[in-house]
Amino acid sequence: MSVKAKKSVDPLIIGAVAVLMLPAAVGAVEFEFSGHVNRLIMSVDNGEEDGLVHADNSVSGTRIRITGAGDYRDDMSVGLLYETELQSNPSSDITADSLDSDGINGDVGSGDEFSNRHSNVWIKGNFGKFAIGQNSGAANGSAEIDLSGTTVIQYVGSSNDLLGSLEYGTSGITVGDARSSFDGLSRNDNLRYDGAIDRVSFAGSIGNGDKVEAAIGYKSDSFEIRAAVWDEADSGDGAQGHAASASWLAGGGFNLTGSYGSEDSDGDPENLYFKLGYRTGDHAWGIDWSETRDRAAGDAGAVSVAWVGNLLEGFQMYACYRVESLDDVAGEDDITALVGGARLKF
Hints:
The protein is built from three helices and 17 strands. With 346 residues, it is mostly beta strands. It has one domain (12-21, 32-345): Porin (Beta Barrel). A 16-stranded antiparallel barrel has the order 1-3-4-5-6-7-8-9-10-11-12-13-14-15-16-17. A hairpin with a 6-residue loop joins strand 14 (283-293) and strand 15.
C-alpha cells in the first residue's frame, strides 16, 4: 500500500485559477500597437581605451508592444500584454574592445539583441488583477521610483544599462560585476496579483523555481514610495533581498529621489542612490550619486548630471555626463562617458 503526502496549495493560485475559469462570453477585444526607438551616441574613456560609439540605449531599449483589452460582463475585463525588445548594439554590451571597431564583436549586426520582455494575459475586476505569463515580478521597480523626469538616461540602474560591460581600466572588473540596484528579480514567468486600497497598492508574485516577491506602495500627485522583498528560492542561488525607493516633487519643480537595495548573499552587498532634480516646462535636469558596496572587490560608485527635453509629443532628446569609479583594486581607473541621444515613441 502506498501513502501519498498531501501538499498545500497557495491560496493565491487557487484564487487566480478560479477567476480565470469563470464562464462567460468576452466582448470584442481591442488591440493597440505601440513602442519606441531609443538611440544614443556615447564618448567613452575607461583609462585604457577611448572612443565614440553608436548604440541602443539599454536604459529603455528600442521595443514594440501589443496590448489588448475587452469587457467581461459589467464588472470585469480581460486583456494581454506582449512586448519585445529589438536592440542593435545595446549600450549595456559595449566593451573597451568594441570602442574602436564596427560594433560589438567588431561586426555590424553581431550585437543585435531580440528579447521577450512581456507575454502575459490578465483578468481585472473589483477583486484586483491577476496576470499569468512572463511579467515583471512584484518586486521589480521597487528600487526605481523616480519623479525627476530624467529617467530615460539617468536613474538608479543607469550604471549597468549604459556601461555594464566596460572594465575599470585593467582591473578585470566590469561595471556589471561591481554595480547593482538590487531591484527585485526583474521579469520572469509568474503568476502575479495586484490590488489597491485608495492610494495604497500591493502586489505579490510566484514564479518558476518557487521564487516569491511581494511589494507595497503609496502614491499621490507629488510623492511616491514603494518597498519590496523577494526570495530566489530554487530559481538561482537562493538569495533573498529587499529594496525601497521614494521620490518627492515640490510645487516649484525641484524634486528629491532616494533608493536603497540589498541582498542577503556573500558579503551582504547593498546599494545607495540619491538624486536632486529640477523640472520646468518641457525640460528636466538631474544630478545624482550612487554607490554599491561589497558586491565585488572594492566599492563602486558613480556621479552624473543629465538633461532631458520633451520637445514634441512622444519625442525626447537627452544628454548626460557620468563618471564611474572603483576603489582599492589594482589596475582600476575611472570610466567617463558623455552621452547624447533621442527617444521617439509611437
